[in-house]
Each structure stands twice: as C-alpha cells, then as structure tokens.
C-alpha cells in the first residue's frame, strides 16, 4: 500500500470540506477506499503566509489594470514552508505542481482517466488555487509543472476546478471504485453517451420501462443499449458523434 499526499494551496480551505465529507469521492480522498493506494489530502491556507497586519497575499498589477494579482513571493513561502518542509520533500521534483486556468490543457474524460491512472498515482501532487485576477507569472513559470482548464469560461477561483478534477479522476485510480467496470460503462468511454436507465416502479405516470429490459434476453438487452447509446449521442452531442 502506498500513500499519496494531495496538497491543496488555497485562500478558501472551507471549500474542500464538503468534497472530503461526502460520497465515494470523499471516501476515496479520505483514504477509506484504498486497496493499493491511499490518499491523504492536506489543505494549506495561503493566507497564513500573507504579509503585514492584513496578511496580504495580493497586490496591484504592474502596468496597471483592474483587480489584484497573487504575489509570487507569498506563494513561494507557502509552498516551501507549508508543503516542502512539513512533507519532508528535499526537492521540488518529488512533487507534481498543478495550476488551473484558461490557458491549461482542456479537461475531459480522457485527460481525467490519464490523470487518475498515472498522475495521481505516480507522485505526490500540489494544487495551486488562483484567486483575483490570477497569479504572478513568475510563480507559474518557476513552480508549476502542469496546467489544466475546465473550459472556455472564467471561474472566480481555482477551487471548483480542483474539486472537479479530483472528483472526475479519482474514479479511475486503480482499486478505488467498488464496481471496477462501472467507470468503463459511463458516458464518453467509447466516445458515446450513456444509454437511458430505469429502475422500479415498472410503470410510472403511464409510462412503462422498455419491454426489452424486463424480459431477460441479455443479447437483446445489449443490442438495445448500444442502439440507444448511439441515438443519444447523435441527438444530444452530434459533435461527439462526428468525431468517432
Ligand atoms: N484573469 C484571469 C482569470 C482569473 S480567475 C484570466 O483572464 O485568464 C481566478 C482563478 O480562477 C485563476 O487563477 C484560475 O486558477 C481559476 N480559473 C479561472 N477560470 C478557470 C478555468 N476555465 N479553468 C480552471 N481554472 C480557472
């Protein structure tokens, strides 16, 4: 059993409490679903390294313009004293440092799978959550190894991006999901959306569960599910359909 630490440097530690408290992702990240790898999430409050009476972590941008920029020196202190020293690391190369922002590699299921199967298992990880107008470029070039973007829109901070990344990739860490095959049957795995699903009652507001699903012919069920996946994808995501 190996233990992997996931460090999260943020100005809003409280964001992460519900992620860690709830559901299967929470269990996994609390180290409770471990078979071969156990996670240990450490939240580092960057404010603790803020400057002066007000614990300032940001300042006005050189060249003018609106908003504030997070200081590289404050982030470097938080990284060195809040992660490197308490973690017992001797060199930054022992860690994979991750930033999120619009310039990053677009996050999708394929990227999440590689992240869960490799990045999360290979090395301890540090997430840097940006706030305000972002982070001094020098911290990014000196410290960050990988950057990911959730999509072409602007979040007010990196916290939701980091939580989304963890939630969508932890399912792919070997030995974490109870039902190992379920991640392979979810949407996107074969370039298709999931087929419709039904449970009890058999009749709801005048509509019955499709007959084929209730009659126990497995070959017919598989065939119906595949047809439905294709229909769903053509109807709802023609862009995905075109790409396959
Ligand atoms: N001024 C920046 C946006 C700053 S938003 C720009 O125009 O690009 C504040 C923080 O939110 C960023 O530092 C980043 O960590 C996070 N963030 C914003 N949009 C994001 C996105 N699409 N994906 C991931 N993180 C994002």
Relative strand content: 15-25%
CATH superfamily of the largest domain: SPOUT methyltransferase, trefoil knot domain
- Largest sheet descriptor: 5 strands, parallel
CATH level 1 name of the largest domain: Alpha Beta
Q: Could you please describe the fold and organization of this structure?
A:
- By secondary structure, the protein is an alpha/beta fold.
- The protein folds into two domains: 2-170, 3-Layer(aba) Sandwich (Alpha/beta knot), CATH 3.40.1280.10; 187-243, tRNA(m1g37)methyltransferase, domain 2 (Trp Operon Repressor, Chain A, Orthogonal Bundle).
- It has helices spanning 16-21, 23-29, 72-87, 109-122, 137-143, 159-169, 182-185, 211-214, 218-236, 238-243; strands at 2-10, 37-45, 58-59, 69-70, 95-106, 124-128, 146-149, 203-204, 207-208.
- Strand 5 (95-106), helix 4 (109-122) and strand 6 (124-128) form a beta-alpha-beta unit.
- Helix 4 (109-122) packs across helix 6 (159-169).
- The site of S-adenosyl-L-homocysteine has 18 residues, from strand 5.
Give the gist of this structure.
With 244 residues, this protein is α/β, with parallel strands linked by helices. The chain has helices at residues 16-21, 23-29, 72-87, 109-122, 137-143, 159-169, 182-185, 211-214, 218-236, 238-243; strands at 2-10, 37-45, 58-59, 69-70, 95-106, 124-128, 146-149, 203-204, 207-208.
């Amino acid at each position: 059993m190996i233990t992997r630490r996931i460090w999260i440097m943020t100005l809003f530690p409280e964001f992460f409490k519900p992620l860690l408290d709830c559901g299967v992702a929470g269990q996994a990240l609390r180290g409770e679903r471990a078979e071969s790898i156990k996670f240990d999430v450490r939240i580092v409050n960057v404010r603790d390294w803020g400057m002066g009476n007000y614990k300032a972590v940001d300042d006005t941008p050189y060249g003018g313009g609106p908003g504030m920029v997070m200081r590289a020196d404050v982030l470097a202190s938080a990284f060195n004293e809040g992660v490197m020293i308490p973690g017992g690391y001797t060199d930054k190369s022992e860690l994979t440092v991750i930033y999120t922002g619009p310039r990053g590699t677009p996050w999708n299921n394929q990227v999440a799978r590689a992240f869960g199967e490799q990045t999360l298992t290979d090395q301890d990880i540090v997430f840097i959550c940006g706030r305000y107008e972002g982070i001094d470029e020098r911290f990014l070039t000196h410290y960050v190894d990988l950057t990911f973007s959730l999509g072409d829109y602007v979040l007010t901070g990196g916290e939701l991006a980091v939580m989304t990344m963890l939630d969508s990739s932890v399912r792919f860490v070997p030995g974490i999901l109870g039902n190992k095959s379920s991640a392979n049957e979810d949407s996107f795995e074969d370039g298709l959306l999931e087929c419709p699903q039904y449970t009890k009652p058999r009749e709801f507001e005048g509509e019955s569960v499709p007959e084929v699903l209730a009659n126990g012919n497995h070959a017919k069920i598989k065939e119906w599910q595949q047809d439905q996946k294709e229909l769903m994808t053509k109807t709802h995501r023609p862009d995905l359909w075109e790409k396959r």
